[in-house]
Structures are given as structure tokens and as C-alpha cells.
Amino acid sequence: QVQLVESGGGLVQAGGSLRLSCAASGSIFSINAMGWYRQAPGKERELVASISLGGMTIYTDSVKGRFTISRDNAKNTVYLQMNSLKSEDTAVYYCNADVVVPDPYRTLEVWGQGTLVTVSS
After folding, report:
1. Burial grade of 97 (CB within 10 A; 0-12, 13-18, 19 or more)
2. Is the peptide bond before 104 cis (omega within 30 degrees of 0)?
3. Could you report how far apart the first and last alpha carbons of the chain are, in Å?
4. Do 54 and 10 meet the contact criterion of CB atoms below 8 Å apart?
């Protein structure tokens, strides 16, 4: 059993910053890509940013230059630093990871429960 637990969401004024964290726990051999998705009311879930095991990053265009994704492989944790927040960033943010588990070795796609980010204008 593998779990992803997110933290760091909340209410912030436009122009402010928040840092999201997502820690993986359980029977983990390794974690490949980790990422953050978001879903705003009435919209589909979209990829915000992802980071590979080696540290390569991808960002959706709307957050480039404002958000930074990083990871601590020793802690099985991924972070999302969000600066210059806008009202359109308001959404539930979900952590996602491709986790390699042992016995037998296989890769599982795991999702967190989501954390709400609300940006007031």
C-alpha cells in the first residue's frame, strides 16, 4: 500500500505565495515521475508541473516563471512553490507519482487526496 499525503494548501491573496508538499509512504522501491495536477470548478483536471527522477521538469504554460517543482528523493517528497498567485490558480491541487513497489516489482500510478488552493483577488 502506497499513500501520497499533500499539505500546504489554503487561502492567499493575489500576488502571494504558497508551497505545497506531497510525501509518499508505504512499500516503496523507487519513485519515477512525480507531478502536480489541478482541477478548478467546472473544468477538467490538468497537469501543472512534473519532475522526473533525474530532475527534468515540465510546466504548463500558464505557470511558467511563477511555479517551481522540486523533489527530495531521500524523503520521497515533491514540492510545488507557487509565487505571484492569480485568481485563476484557484483549484484543488493533486499530487501524482509513478511508484515502483516490490514483491512483485511493478509500477503503480498513485494519487493524493487533493489540497484546496484559493486565491482571492
Report:
1. buried
2. yes
3. 40
4. no
d(CA 36, CA 2): 17
Please, what is the Cα angle at 71 between 31 and 82, to 5 degrees?
130
d(CA 7, CA 80): 10
Q: What is the pLDDT of residue 103?
A: 85
What's the CA gap between 84 and 21, in Å, rounded?
A: 18
Q: Which three cell numbers stand for residue 86?
A: 492569480
Q: In which residue are the cell numbers 504554460 written?
A: 61
For residue 44, give the DSSP letter: -
User: Grid coordinates in use for 74?
Assistant: 531521500
> What is the C-alpha to C-alpha distance for residues 112 and 7, in angstroms, rounded to an integer?
10
- Tell me the pLDDT tens digit for each residue of 25-59: 999 999 999 999 999 999 999 999 999 999 999 99
Backbone angles phi, psi at 20, to 5 degrees: -95, 145
